[in-house]
Write a structure and sequence with these properties.
The chain is an alpha/beta fold. The protein has a single domain (2-234), classed as Rossmann fold (3-Layer(aba) Sandwich). The protein has 7 helices and 10 strands. It has helices spanning 9-26, 41-52, 80-87, 109-123, 159-165, 184-188, 203-211; strands at 2-6, 31-34, 62-65, 67-69, 99-100, 128-131, 153-156, 178-181, 193-197, 229-234. Strands 1-10-9-6-2-3-5 form a 7-stranded parallel β-sheet, covered by helices on one side. Strands 4-8-7 form a 3-stranded antiparallel β-sheet, with helices on one face. Helix 1 (9-26) packs across helix 2 (41-52). It is globular. The two termini are 14 Å apart. 44% of the residues are buried. The model has no long low-confidence stretch (mean pLDDT 93).
Length: 250
C-alpha cells in the first residue's frame, strides 16, 4: 500500500486526479470505477480542468459507479447519476454509452443487482477504482456488518450514513433508506484501488481501516488484503495514523 499525505483538500484532490489522469493517458480505454459524495468533487473538477486544456481525452474511457440510491433516477438532483453528469460526464467527452450506474428506479432488488453484476462481469476488471471512506469505515454503501457482502446487493443504510447524507437533501425524511451498491468482491477485483480521505472527521475511519484488524465491522479494512492500494489523505484525515506508518514522498 502506498500512502500520500497532503496539506489540505485541494492538494489531496490534485494528487488523486494525477493518479487517475496517468491511468487514462497510459491506457485510454481504461475501465474506471467511480465514487460520489463530497470528497471526489475536487478530483472531478481537476480532471475537467485538464481536459479543457487538452491534456486528457475520455473518448475511449469506460466508467462504472459504485452505487445508486434505490428509488432515485436521472431526474432527481440527489441521484448519483445526476451527480456524475453534473460533476464529470457533461463536462468532458466521455461517450454516454460508456458510463454505467446501478438502476435506482428498478424496484426489483434482485433484478437490479443481477443486472449490474452481469454488466460488471461482462466489462471485466476495473483498471482503477476510486473510493471514499465513510465515518464508520464504509466503502460504497457496504456498511459495518458481521460479514463482507461480496457482489452487488441492496443495502439498508445505517442511521449514521443517513445522517451524513442529509446535507444533500432539502428535508431529512427525503434521504433514501436503501441503495444498490457494489459488494466487497466487486471492489477487490479492481487492479488498482485509490482511496481518498479528507477532514478530521475521517481520522478514526482511516486509522481503523488501514491500521486496525481486518473485520466486516470496518468494511474498508478489507483493502489491507489487496495488492495495489493507494491512500491519498490530507493531514487532518491522517492525523491519527502517523505513529503507525510514515507516508510516501509526494
Amino acid at each position: 500500500m502506498r500512502i500520500y499525505v497532503t496539506k489540505d483538500y485541494a492538494e489531496m484532490s490534485r494528487k488523486a486526479a494525477n493518479i487517475i489522469s496517468a491511468q487514462i493517458i497510459l491506457k485510454p480505454d481504461s475501465i474506471l470505477g467511480l465514487a460520489t459524495g463530497s470528497t471526489p468533487v475536487g478530483i472531478y473538477d481537476q480532471l475537467v480542468e485538464w481536459y479543457g486544456k487538452g491534456d486528457l481525452d475520455f473518448s475511449e474511457t469506460v466508467t462504472v459507479n459504485l452505487d445508486e440510491y434505490k428509488g432515485l433516477g436521472p431526474d432527481s438532483p440527489q441521484s448519483y447519476v445526476f451527480y456524475m453528469h453534473k460533476y464529470l460526464f457533461d463536462r468532458v467527452n466521455i461517450k454516454p454509452g460508456n458510463t454505467h450506474l446501478p438502476d435506482g428506479l428498478n424496484d426489483d432488488p434482485e433484478g437490479a443487482c443481477r443486472e449490474y453484476n452481469e454488466l460488471l462481469q461482462s466489462l471485466g476488471e476495473q483498471d482503477l477504482q476510486l473510493l471514499g471512506i465513510g465515518r464508520n469505515g464504509h466503502i460504497g454503501f457496504n456498511e459495518p456488518d458481521n460479514i463482507f457482502d461480496q457482489d452487488v446487493h441492496c443495502v439498508s443504510l445505517t442511521n449514521s450514513t443517513i445522517e451524513a447524507n442529509k446535507r444533500f437533501f432539502e428535508a431529512g425524511e427525503e434521504v433514501p433508506k436503501f441503495a444498490y451498491t457494489m459488494g466487497i468482491r466487486s471492489i477487490l477485483r479492481s487492479k488498482k484501488i485509490l482511496v481518498v480521505a479528507s477532514g478530521e472527521d475521517k481520522a478514526d475511519a482511516v486509522r481503523n481501516a488501514f491500521f486496525g484488524p481486518v473485520t466486516p465491522l470496518v468494511p474498508a479494512s478489507i483493502l489491507q488484503l489487496h495488492d495495489d492500494v493507494i491512500l491519498v489523505a490530507d493531514k487532518a484525515a491522517y492525523s491519527k495514523c502517523s505513529e503507525y506508518r510514515e507516508p510516501s514522498p509526494a
